[in-house]
Design a protein that fits this description.
This protein is an alpha+beta fold. Helices cover 43% and strands 21% of the residues. It has helices at residues 22-39, 54-89, 96-118, 123-147, 151-179; strands at 196-200, 205-209, 214-221, 232-242, 250-252, 255-257, 259-264, 273-277, 282-290, 293-300. The strands form two sheets. Strands 1-2-3-4-7-8-9-10 form an eight-stranded antiparallel β-sheet, with no helix packed on it. The protein has a two-stranded antiparallel ribbon with strand order 5-6. It is elongated and about 80 Å long.
Length: 302
């Protein structure tokens, strides 16, 4: 009977590389997370700025692939490799799985402390994000080590699982689009509920709507900026409420929306503001067409 030692790979995976396939698992989970995000887009308010089609998705994939590979390698070097190396160096093969968990927790705590020292982020949130993104790569590395798998074998396994997950996301997106299950619906507010103050961008944009139809705008974007020397305008005027069933009612990604139209003295034609958010936390938003793409300006209750 031929034993594994003949080929130089002792049983238990001692001949496998440290953290083999961890970078593949990290990249795969990012790809699947992006696919799920796109598949569930109908459940969120995209404010009319969702992907226009396959061309946009292709641009994101091509442009983001080098960054994704770089992120996978950095995560492997900064998280998976230190955790697996510490687990291997601190004892015998017996109990290595438990040591891997403890070492991963230590690496997570170290990185979370470093993040909180650089940015104003709570330690618990930082540790949760780091541990969450590192769990699957560590499982992949542990599996490769136990099975004495090398990079090619892990690529085949991770690729197959990623393909299955992407097909499931595609099927879910198709069913959600066909059935409208848990689809986003804009809130419906009465006219009087729009009255009051609205602010956005840290107070850079302001709008006051009075119940009698008067309006006061502060640094709000214009629709036709070619006729003036500025991109935004301030002043007083009037506002009108147009429900979704009105002629020319606004639509965004198939969702009919109520809107507010403004007439501000000396500002020319103002952009319409459409309702978004939820009934508990409503928002007014408008989409500004700029040379570098579309920009969403959002107002909320102060």
């Amino acid at each position: 009977m031929v034993t594994p030692e003949v080929y130089g790979k002792p049983r238990g995976g001692r001949g496998a590389r440290l953290a083999t396939g961890a970078e593949l698992a990290f990249m795969a989970q990012v790809i699947v997370a992006g696919a799920v995000f796109l598949a569930t887009s109908g459940m969120r308010d995209d404010r009319g700025t969702g992907f226009a089609g396959g061309t946009d998705v292709l641009k994101v994939l091509v442009g983001g692939l080098p960054l994704l590979v770089l992120a996978g390698c950095l995560h492997w070097a900064l998280f998976s490799l230190p955790a697996t190396a510490l687990a291997r160096l601190t004892g015998s093969p017996r109990g290595e799985t438990a040591r891997l968990v403890l070492c991963a927790a230590a690496v997570t705590a170290a990185h979370a402390w470093w993040v909180t020292a650089l940015w104003d982020v709570p330690f618990g949130w930082a540790a949760a994000w780091i541990a969450g993104t590192g769990a699957l790569p560590l499982v992949a590395a542990w599996h490769a080590r136990r099975r004495s798998l090398w990079w090619g074998a892990m690529l085949a396994r991770v690729g197959a699982l990623t393909g299955i997950a992407l097909l499931a996301a595609l099927a879910g997106a198709f069913l959600q689009a066909r059935t409208g299950w848990l689809g986003y619906e804009p809130p419906r507010l009465e006219r009087d509920q729009y009255a009051g103050n609205w602010v956005g961008s840290g107070g850079a944009h302001r709008l006051r709507l009075d119940g009698n139809g008067a309006a006061e705008a502060g640094n709000l974007p214009l629709e036709d900026r070619s006729t003036v020397l500025w991109d935004a305008c301030s002043g007083t005027g009037t506002w009108a409420f147009e429900p979704e069933g009105a002629a020319g009612g606004a639509r965004s990604s198939g969702a009919a929306r109520d809107r507010v139209t403004l007439t501000i003295e000396g500002c020319g034609r103002m952009l319409d503001w459409r309702i978004g958010g939820t009934a508990a936390r409503p928002e007014l938003f408008t989409v500004v067409d700029a040379s570098d793409g579309r920009r969403v300006v959002t107002l909320h209750r102060p």
